[in-house]
Structure formats: structure tokens, C-alpha cells
Amino acid sequence: MSLDRPDPHDHREWLRTRELTLLERAYLTALIWLDRRLRVVDYLEFVETLYYKVNMQLPKSHTEQYNLDNKFWYWYPLYTLGSFSVVAYVVAAVTGALLGFYYAPAAASASGQPTVAYDSVLLVMGQLNLGYFLRSVHRWAAQVMVAAVFLHMLRVYFTGAYKEPRELNWLIGVVLVSLTLWFGYSGYLLPWSQLSYWAGQIGIELFLSVPLVGEWLAQLLFGGFSLSQATLVRMYIMHVFVMPFVTTALIAIHIGIVWMQGIAEPH
Ligand code: HEM
What predicted TM-score, i.e. pTM, was given to this entire model? Predict the structure, then answer.
């Protein structure tokens, strides 16, 4: 590929002499403008080649291959559970980002008063327009995601879709289900309510009971051996910063592998 581009005046001449609709002319002018600066046509061609190369590897669907017509149709809803998990994840991410404008991860409180974190949740629930709705959608999306991911895992297991060559995607799935559960747990602690506090207590003792690495894990995940401001900040940063990046990247890899391998035949 050469960096040299034809003279722009040639393009203008070419465009002038064509019979084009206004839309076509606007599209081509924009494309040429972008191409002369960012070589977009080369990149578009590269993506197109990649698309056809990958698509050539996709096996036929099992209905096509075995000419099953609609005999297996009643299984199909179960094959949408992975996509259903993605939708729930996106809804949780968008509503979570909006909640982030109002939530404050601070465990401090004046004596006898609710903590700053709990107060910020009360504000969302009681003062903010549609705040009650926003928080409810976030919680529902989270719970639907946990259910969908779990059922998706069952579908993969009972159709034998984890077998060769899909072992890697199964293992990525194991990490994804753990991340999904940890998303739920860290989010549950954020309101720093009585429920959050005692769930945190159970969690910290659970990790402390792990042999050899228990104390190290409690220190890493909870910021110490008892609940404190450090616990809340760690849960917050994991919930809103670390895990969204890791989970989004892993979901993209997971679906990329499904795209390359095609959906498994039921075994
Ligand atoms: C955030 C969680 C997850 C998302 C968003 C997700 C998404 C998807 C999607 C969209 C598909 C395409 C087929 C379908 O929807 O059934 C798929 C396939 C697959 N998933 Fe997941 N998944 C997740 C978790 C898991 C878990 C927990 C496991 C297992 C431990 C798993 C293992 C697999 C395997 C092996 C396939 C290939 C299935 C086949 O070829 O029929 N995934 N996933």
C-alpha cells in the first residue's frame, strides 16, 4: 500500500462528471476527504477481507447441516441465554454509570446518623427524579444477569458444548461467572446498609477461613481483617472501575471465539 494519494483535483473532476444523487455525492465527498487524511478505504478493505476470511471458517448451523427444519426449534430459546446475559450486562452498566453521579463511597457518619454512602443511596431513592426507578433497574439487571449466566452455563453443559474445541471458552466462562457473582457481591456492599455490613462480615470471615492465603486475600479484597472505610473503597473501585474493564474485555473475547468456532452441534 502506498501512502501516495492521487491528486485531489482528479477526485473533484471525477465527482463533477458523474450523475449522482445528493446523498451519494455527500457520501463520496466525505469518504474521499477522510481517505486522503486517514486512509480509511484501506482499513475498510482490510476489515472486509477479515470478515470474509472469518466467515469462511464458520460451520453450518446444525439445522442446515442435518436438514432438521424446525425439529429442534424448542431448544432455540436456550441458545439466546448468552446474548440475554450481554443485554442484562449492558443495562446494568448504563444504569450503574448514571448511579455513579450520585453515589459516594464514604463510611463516615455523624454519631447516630446514617453513613455518607447510605445517605447518598437514600437521596437517589427519595429526592432524585426517577432515582428509585434507576436503582431498581440496576438491581434487577444485576439479578437477571446472574440468573441468565447461570442458565447459559447449564445450557452449554447439557448440550455438551464445552467439549473440544470449546474448552477454552468454557474456562473463560468460569471466570465470567465468578466475575458476575463478584459484581453482585461488591455492589451489594456499596449502600453500606445493615444488610451490606453483615454480608461484608460474612465475606471477610469466609475469606479469612481459606487456608494459607486467607489473610492475604482478606487484606487484598477487604482492605484488612475487619470492615472499614478501606473495605468500602475497595468494593467501590472493583465494582465501578476494575471489573467493568476486565469483564467487558473477557465477554468480547468469549463472543469472538464463538464467532470463530460457530455454535456447537448438540451432542
Ligand atoms: C458474562 C457471562 C457470559 C456471557 C455474556 C456469555 C455470552 C455468550 C454468548 C453470546 C454465546 C453464544 C451462544 C449462546 O448465547 O448460547 C456464548 C457461548 C458459549 N459460552 Fe458463554 N457467556 C457467558 C458466560 C459463560 C459461562 C459461565 C460459561 C461456562 C462456564 C460459558 C461457556 C460458553 C461456551 C462453551 C459457549 C459456546 C457454546 C456453543 O458453541 O454452543 N459462557 N456465550
Answer: 0.82
- Measured at the alpha carbon of residue 5, what is the angle toward residues 4 and 7, in degrees to the nearest 5? 125
Question: What digits encode the pLDDT tens for the residues 240-250?
Answer: 999 999 999 99
- For helices 167-189 and 194-208, give the axis angle rounded to 10 degrees: 130
Domain borders along the chain are 8-57, 76-261
C-alpha distances (whole Å) from 15 to each of 9, 24, 25, 201, 250 are: 10, 10, 7, 71, 45
Cell of 183: 459484581
Q: How far is CA 252 from CA 69, 138, 257, 261, in A?
A: 31, 22, 9, 14
Say yes or no: CB of residue 264 within 6 Å of ligand 1. Answer: yes
Please tell us whether the domain made up of 76-261 is placed in CATH 1.20.810.10.
Answer: yes
- How many helices (H) does the chain have, and how many strands (E)? 12, 0
- Measured in Å, residue 82 CA sits from the centre of ligand 1 at 5
Ligand 1 midpoint to CA 155 (Å): 9
